[in-house]
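Subject: complex prediction, re-run

Hi both,

The earlier run crashed halfway through, so I resubmitted it with identical inputs.
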Amino acid sequence: MGRHFLQIPGPTNVPDRVLRAIAQPTIDHRGPEFARLASELLERLKGVFQTAGPVVVYPSSGTGAWEAALVNTLSPGDKVVAFETGHFSTLWCEMAARLGLVVDLVPGDWRHGADPDALAERLTPDVAAVMVVHNETSTGVRSRVPEIRAALDRAGHPALLLVDTISSLGSMDHRHDEWGVDVTVGCSQKGLMLPPGIGFNAVSDKALAHRGRLPRSYWDWEPIIEANRRGFYPYTPPTNLLYGLREALIMLEEEGLPAVFARHDRHAEATRRAVRAWGLEVLCADEREHSSSLTAVLMPEGHDADAVRRLILERYDMSLGTGLGRLAGRVFRIGHLGHFNDLMLAGTLSGVEMGLAAAGVPIKEGGTRAALAYLEGGR
Amino acid sequence: MGRHFLQIPGPTNVPDRVLRAIAQPTIDHRGPEFARLASELLERLKGVFQTAGPVVVYPSSGTGAWEAALVNTLSPGDKVVAFETGHFSTLWCEMAARLGLVVDLVPGDWRHGADPDALAERLTPDVAAVMVVHNETSTGVRSRVPEIRAALDRAGHPALLLVDTISSLGSMDHRHDEWGVDVTVGCSQKGLMLPPGIGFNAVSDKALAHRGRLPRSYWDWEPIIEANRRGFYPYTPPTNLLYGLREALIMLEEEGLPAVFARHDRHAEATRRAVRAWGLEVLCADEREHSSSLTAVLMPEGHDADAVRRLILERYDMSLGTGLGRLAGRVFRIGHLGHFNDLMLAGTLSGVEMGLAAAGVPIKEGGTRAALAYLEGGR
Amino acid sequence: MGRHFLQIPGPTNVPDRVLRAIAQPTIDHRGPEFARLASELLERLKGVFQTAGPVVVYPSSGTGAWEAALVNTLSPGDKVVAFETGHFSTLWCEMAARLGLVVDLVPGDWRHGADPDALAERLTPDVAAVMVVHNETSTGVRSRVPEIRAALDRAGHPALLLVDTISSLGSMDHRHDEWGVDVTVGCSQKGLMLPPGIGFNAVSDKALAHRGRLPRSYWDWEPIIEANRRGFYPYTPPTNLLYGLREALIMLEEEGLPAVFARHDRHAEATRRAVRAWGLEVLCADEREHSSSLTAVLMPEGHDADAVRRLILERYDMSLGTGLGRLAGRVFRIGHLGHFNDLMLAGTLSGVEMGLAAAGVPIKEGGTRAALAYLEGGR
Amino acid sequence: MGRHFLQIPGPTNVPDRVLRAIAQPTIDHRGPEFARLASELLERLKGVFQTAGPVVVYPSSGTGAWEAALVNTLSPGDKVVAFETGHFSTLWCEMAARLGLVVDLVPGDWRHGADPDALAERLTPDVAAVMVVHNETSTGVRSRVPEIRAALDRAGHPALLLVDTISSLGSMDHRHDEWGVDVTVGCSQKGLMLPPGIGFNAVSDKALAHRGRLPRSYWDWEPIIEANRRGFYPYTPPTNLLYGLREALIMLEEEGLPAVFARHDRHAEATRRAVRAWGLEVLCADEREHSSSLTAVLMPEGHDADAVRRLILERYDMSLGTGLGRLAGRVFRIGHLGHFNDLMLAGTLSGVEMGLAAAGVPIKEGGTRAALAYLEGGR
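This time it finished cleanly. Structure:
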């Protein structure tokens, strides 16, 4: 009984408004009503990406949007520089390799973001693109994209900048145009508060001009952008998820993006205070790089994060994120993004606090109390 | 953003499952599909009332079910004994008077339940019925219905026992048959986790045999019970709310009534511990009479409960119950009934704690923490 | 598979938009959001009743709204004139008698509306009210309310005029103020395209001034109108159905009431053309009195209307209205009101045509074709 | 007002049950509840594909599932034989070419299915695969897949058989295993009665063994099939559409696939009878090859199909399919698949009949009547 607390770092709690929007009857995707919907949507979408350029919408997961970013811009054998910031950066590199690209991976410890200084020395002339994960969903570490951009600019290097904003879009500030990003990769089920099923590419003029030779059809930007001009798609779009997308964008506009970002910053800070008050460690090791959409918590030696997660799911009906890849069992992740507010955070942290205690993890009292104290003052 | 916390003592948070059930297309209320629905429902309903007899379902509020209980059983000028346990007991008496009954009201201080000892001396031969509010929604005080029954039995008095279970049905133990209740009055929007719009009368054989002469038509049990035998209604039933009722009853059966009651007991105890740890007073003055579905909290002198409620609504998006009648401004009420769980309670109490502090009400720290400590141990 | 055709004369097909509105989370009925909803609703409602006065909204069926009209205005022993226009007029009279009123019933043949000429001779000085069913749901006959009003005016008689618009409100023109109606009785599940569960009384100043002495509490207009001024209700209102009501009223406003009425007139005429082309008889015997919301069809001798209805339900998944009271087995009723359009009517008539043929009822071909021909030309 | 008639050949009318299922809250796609959902779904899916092998589910359109079929099985420069049966067969060939395959296209007149006799002479040893569109959505022509299989078998040729069942799956008999198909391509928004957003590949053992060297990552069957064994996905699956898929599969099972196919056959025959009675021509030129899910209707010379479609949309609120590619303006397409029944068909054909007349297209009367006559007899 009672509502499930879905506090993984995505999919996030979908607002009732959005679920009801999705439940509208499907319409003719070649008719005038759809054309109006799509035209409106494509304009609204630019706001959340902070771009004046096109945003391509795919019926796909975020992984699909990764593939789209690569196959549209690169050619077989192209070299890309990537940063080992966590599990998802690794998966994106594996994808690039499978598609025939050569990946120059800057190693990392999964507790820091992409290192702008390390980038400079990798920028050999043959580098075609730089791949950055803005917000590593597996670690809760944010990469400083503007500093990456600055490193490219300092080097005067023409490489494309491809940025994964899968778990930051709509919850943390990301400025596609201002930051000089060439392809922003996003998806529906995190800050946009939708179910999974939509992937996005925001595309710069430079990226549009620089088409690679990797084979592509489904992911090809051109016929989509062309058809979008009239409000249509070259293949059947995911109509009902688009209904939800419109509703979610309206909700974000109603709150205002700066307020949305401030809300996430505030909840993230409150969460870190709780974690530290419990005597536990936040995985992210650099104060400049904390994620505002999730927090990964390191377990004390000898305690299995997944055992705690299972206990919390069974006893308190809350889902937390598991440790991925090399972090399996060592961290759990608290998602505090999307359709979320102070009292949901209070319930979330209370569940973590009770769950850690019940699992026998040695914590100090007062974590939730510390978060509440910050929330009280932080308005 | 984020979910509203609807923590008034009803209407309560309606489960998504129930809302989706309600959103099914309306059907022919004279057709075979409806007959199956109604027959199933009327059987399932008996479980929650703990009766083998009929339960009459009205398209009405709970107030309508009060009226039904009176006009079916009583005659103009009949005397009824009632107890001043709070705002709703008073309203029920006013209704009785308006319908032409003579009310003998046992006075009360709104901090205690109906007094079984006081009943004995009121049981003159002309008393036709005794009216008791099982769980006073305005005060969070539970009346000890079995002791009222025992007082009637000791006196060998034939008066009918009419019990309002509006805010206890489906959240606190109520045994229509075992406790010898003649009419149990209930409604949809509290423990049954439905929107408002349905009222109930569970009816004993004695009540059915003892029909009064007050004029009645809409509320008349007989044609309804007669039509119900074939799965129909003498007038159009509230089909979509009945869909929701079926779903809600299934949910209660899945959890099991004893577990449902235990959950509410536990949340009520945790709430009282929080209130006391804050240094505040629970309105209910008798340990035997605490409600398990809501808690009314007395404000310190000089502090307006409604100002706190407004602040909490604006800042934390939580609705709490106002003080009613003579308690206006002096108490606020926390609803912890219906579709509710530990983390929702944690969020609720956190919101109260932050709100009291923000409103400048002098409280001690640690109320929410005390509740969590009880919840941790209380499983 | 495929959609059920709910072609009884109410409940009608509820639009998806309305069902989704109803599925919104329930809110605090004493909070500011509810007050805004109620205030908006109560204003919008006036439009559909064509009144500047108050409309009282009950959690009830239409039958409850009948009772409200009587108990608010009349006193025990009052004489009311009523017309036997069909099953529902008879039920209303039975209710009046049960509530202690004296009914002077103008007999009728169930094929004509209320006779304005017959009224004159009944208007003895002791008549307190005249009860008219605007659109007899059991017969598809419309009473000419303005002519009833004129008869009262000619006689200079002060009797109140109580009009049941249960199956005409929102589908056929009804002018509460202009026609001098004192109480208009309505409900949710017909022209208003909602599920059942709401009853209405639109009330004239004269009716408000003329309060009867029948006992009343739940149905009492005064506390409701008083609380409504601030956007509230004296008891818990049916919040979720009110969400649906708002949406339905918006839909009616979008189409415009004159267009709504014209649509129903057109579908009714097309239906009658189909019936006559099949060689069957429409029950309504006066061309001035055809209902625009439903058509009752007389079966040829020796054929059971309910057998046809069952066959159509089983074979074509369409619900039609049964013959009620003395018309049982002799007529079936086609509802063509509410959320309905040309192609739904074409499907409906096709189902009737195929069903009659399959049941062995001797009909001529071409009924549906005749309706389509009218629809083609009738725009 | 009234329901929109969505009679394009997909997306089709989504049942309310399915829309409500989709509106359930999104859950953790790595948790135990999701694992149960996915495991159940993947088993149920086999039934509709009539296969014992795996079915791969993609967050994608049907176009994506085309791409998946190609990139999993073929290598750059591979030769594929395809048939020009209509617009979609052409698009699939274009995709193959863009992905680096060599297409040997058997020309066609868009009024016939794939010619099994023509296949034999194309089966040179270097042919890697044969691509067939089972049911051409642009023409309403069905290809005889078992005869294509027989031609391959007679030639003893090892080419893979790739079959597009996008508009036949779940509405027309397709037997993946029995017919020796290697990859069946499907999607959600046609016979499966879902919104768009899911693509499918049913995969034979032979196809699984025969992996091509086209670059692939998102579409790669192996990690998906591997993760599916435990009820999971290598990337975030479209949870809410999967809820709907489960519900839709249950609905198909309730009716039974043979009954589903018979229903579609019957509606298609009724539609053709209407078309011919109007004096118009069905596009499909071979009696053995009529589609059961849609009917393309040829316009008389001098009449623009799209003008008729626009008129029908505006006047009767029905969407019909446009003529695609070389058929633009020359045909319109009636979708009669998915969640559909006799009375919906009657409404659909009535709308076409009225629309053709209103547009001044010379037709004979009686088309809808001819369809009804067939439906009456055809049970």
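Chain A touches chain D through 57 residues (CB under 8 Å).

- K.
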